[in-house]
Design goal:
alpha/beta; two-stranded antiparallel sheet; four-stranded parallel sheet
Length: 155
């Protein structure tokens, strides 16, 4: 089973109430090959919500207590992001996910790039909190940008 970010499946769950439907994921949904997940909603957020970025590192650093997830207004929402990551991990384990496809750049889901924590639209190399936790537990995480290549190799 493939677990995918709900926003990539067309659900309007992003911080601003939008989605980013990915055509290949839409096709996989129609074929009943995916289950959707939104780590932020699972962590206790609602939609819409204030944008947040990791400040002081990346998702690995958040899990290690060395960085925080902060909303644009300055509120510390680290605990909600960590909680959502753990609920997502449990779901991935329960469905025996072979891969998890998460939205790039997100403080939860980024698998190779995230925003740099300055709220200026600048990106940096790094992973989100959920990606870091899933990978620590041996679960493969890719972004929507790597999905086609993954499917050609493994499906």
């Amino acid at each position: 089973m493939i677990l995918v970010s709900s926003c990539l499946a067309g659900l309007e769950v992003r911080y601003n109430g939008t989605h980013c439907l990915h055509d290949t994921i839409r096709e996989l949904i129609e074929e009943n090959q995916v289950i959707t997940v939104c780590p932020e909603l699972l962590g206790g957020f609602t939609t819409p919500r204030e944008p947040a970025e990791i400040v002081g590192g990346n998702g690995e650093d958040v899990l290690d207590g060395k960085a925080k997830v902060i909303e644009k207004s300055g509120a510390d929402v680290t605990e909600l992001y960590v909680n959502g990551a753990y609920v997502t991990l449990k779901k991935a384990q329960d469905v025996e996910a072979t891969v998890v496809v998460l939205k790039e750049y997100s403080p939860s889901c980024g698998s190779s790039m995230i925003y740099n924590g300055e709220f200026i639209g600048k990106k940096m190399v790094g992973v989100g909190v959920t990606t870091a936790l899933l990978r620590r537990n041996g679960i493969e995480v890719i972004s929507e940008e790597g999905l086609e290549e993954y499917l050609q190799q493994y499906i």
